[in-house]
Amino acid sequence: MTSTALTTLIAGRRRVGLLAVIGLSLACLLLAIVAIGQGAISIPPGRVAEILMARLTGDTTLLEGRDVLVVLNIRLPRVLLGLLVGAGLAVSGALMQGLFRNPLADPGLVGASSGAALAAAATIVLGDRFLAGTMMKLPFAALPMGAFCGGLVATLALYLIATRGGRTSVATMLLAGVALGALASALTGLLAFISDDRQLRDLTFWSLGSLGGASWTKLSAVAPIILPMLLLMPLLARGLNGLMLGEAEAYHLGIPVQRIKALAILFVALAVGASVASAGLVGFVGIVVPHLIRLSVGPDHRLLLPLSALGGAMLLVGADIVARLIVAPAELPIGIVTATIGAPFFLWLLLRRSSVLDV
Amino acid sequence: MSGSRDQTAYSGLMRPNRRELTATALALLGLGGLAPLAPASAQTSERIVVAGGVITEVIYALGLQGRVVGVDSTSQFPADALKDKANIGYVRALSAEGVLSLKPTLVMLIDGAGPPDAVSLLNESGVKLARISDGLTPDGVVTKIAAIGAAIGAAAPAERLAAQTRARFDELAALRSGITKKRRVLFVLSLQNGRALVGGRNSSADGIIALAGGINVADAIEGYKPMTDEAIAAAAPEMVLMMRNSSAHNTTPEELFAMPSFSQTPAANGRRLVHMDGLYLLGFGPRTPMAARDLMAAIYPEAAIPALKTAAAP
Asked: Does residue A327 belong to the interface with chain B, where contact is any CB pair within 8 Å?
C-alpha cells in the first residue's frame, strides 16, 4: 500500500525528472566550456577551441606556446577534476542521506573526510621529520595518498565497529562516526599545535580546499575511483528507495539491505577519499546539493543520484570559476566560494518552501 | 638618477612610523608619473613576478622595481609594491595560471612558496624560476640579498647592498657587545581571548631578539605557540614586545599588565610594553640591522644606544 503510493509519486515525477537530467547535463556541459575558456590568462574562445580540436585530432602543429599549456595542462584537468570531485561529493551526500534516512547526513559521517583530514595533517606536519627520504621521491604524492588511505581506514574502522553478525547498524555507525570524527579532529588539532607556522598555514589552506594544482597525473589517479562509482550508483537507487520505508520493510520487499549498505559506504569512502586527497576539504557540496535536488524533484533516488552528480559538478566548477577570477592573479580557496554562493541560495530555497523538513 | 631617488625614498621609509610611511608612499605615487623616465624600467624587458615579501623589499632597495609586474600579498614593504603591482595572492597559496597571466620572464620564489603543485606547473611552463632561501641570521640575510641580485642579473649592486648590510650587522654586533647585563624579552604575537601566542625558539621573533641583545624568555617553546599564564609569570619577562596594528587598536600597557599572567612580571612594574612594525621587525631583509638596533634601544633605553652610522649612508 505504501509501496504503491510511492510508485505513483515516482511515476508522476518521472517526466519532470527526465527533462531535468537532460537540461542539467546541457547546463553542466555549457558551464564546463565556459570554465575552460575563462581564467587569469585571457585566451580568445576561438583559440581555445582550436587548441582543444588540435588535441583531439592529434594535430601537433597548432600545439605551440603558453596558451596550449594553460588550456591543456592547467584548465582542462582542473575543470575535469572539478566535475569529478563535485559529482563525487554530491552523490556521496545523496547516498548517505538515503542510507541514514536523515537529511542531515553528510559524507563526513562515515569518517572518510575526518580520516583523510587527519592523515593529510599528519603528512603536512610529520612528513618533514619522518618521511624525509621517501618524501623526496614522491613529494607530491605523499599527501594525496596519505589522505586517501586515511579516509579508507577510518571508514573501514567505522564499518567494522557497526557490523555485528553480518548486519550493519546505521545508528551505531552514525554515533561511532561522531565519536571517531571528534577523535580525528582532536588529533588534527594536536598536529596543528605541534606544527610550525609554515605547516599551520599549509594546513589552513588545505582545509579550505582548492582545485589549483590539478594535473593529468592527479586526474588519472582520481578518475578511476570516482568514475566507476558514478557509473555504478544507479544500481543502488531502487534499494535506497526501498530503504526510505524502513529497514525491515525494505528487507521484506526483497531488497538486499546489507549489500546496499556495504556498497553505499564503500562508494562514499572511495569518492570522498579521492576528492579530499585531490582537492582538500571542500565543504557544503555533499550536504546541500542533494537537498537542493530533493526539494526540486522529490526523493526518488533514480533521479536524485544522477541529478545530484550533475548539480555537484556544476556547483564546484562554477565556484572554481569565481575562485580563480575574482581576485586574479591570486586565487581564493574554493571552500569559501562554495559556501558563500551555495548557502544563501539554499536558504532562499528553504524559505520559499513552506514544508521545509518534508524531504 | 632615479636609482638614487628610490634609494633615498627607501631610507626615508626605514623608520617604522606608519604615518610617515603612508606620506612617503603617497609622495612616491605622485612621482609615479616620472616612472617611464626611470632607466631601471627602461633598460630591460624583464617581467619579474615575486613571491616573498623580503625579495620585493630587496628589489625595491636596488631600485629595480620597474622590472617587477606582480608581487605576493606578503610584499607589504614598501607600501607601493602592492599598490602598483598585480597581487598574486598569499605566498603559500599561489595559482599557476594567475602567475602566468602576468607573462613573467622570471618568477622568484622564497623558501616555502607554493603549493608544490603550482610551482611544478610553473616549472613545466618553461618560465625561469629562481628560488631564494630564507634565513634568520645576519649571514642568512646577506646571502639572501646576494642571491636575489644574482637571480635578476644585478649582482654588483646587490653585492654592494649585501656588503652594506653586513657592515650594519657588524656595527650592530659591536653595539651588542657593549651590553653587559642582558634583559629578558617576551614577544607576544597575539592575545586571543587573553591567551598569549608567543614567539619561541626558531621563530623570527627569537632571531630579532637575539640580534638586539635580549634574551627570549619563551625559548623553551618551538615556533609561535600559546604560552600558559603560569609559564609567562614564571618566565619573568622584563619587557613585552608586540607588533603594531596597522589600523585597529593596539594593546595598551594597562590592558596587558592587568592580565593575571602579566601583572606580576618585572615588565609590569616598569610598564614596559613596546610595539614595533611587524614587517620591519620580523622581515629579515636589508632593514633588519636597523630594526634590531631600534629594538635594542627599546630594550636598553638607559644605555642610549646610538643610531647605526652606516644606516645614514646612501
From this structure: yes
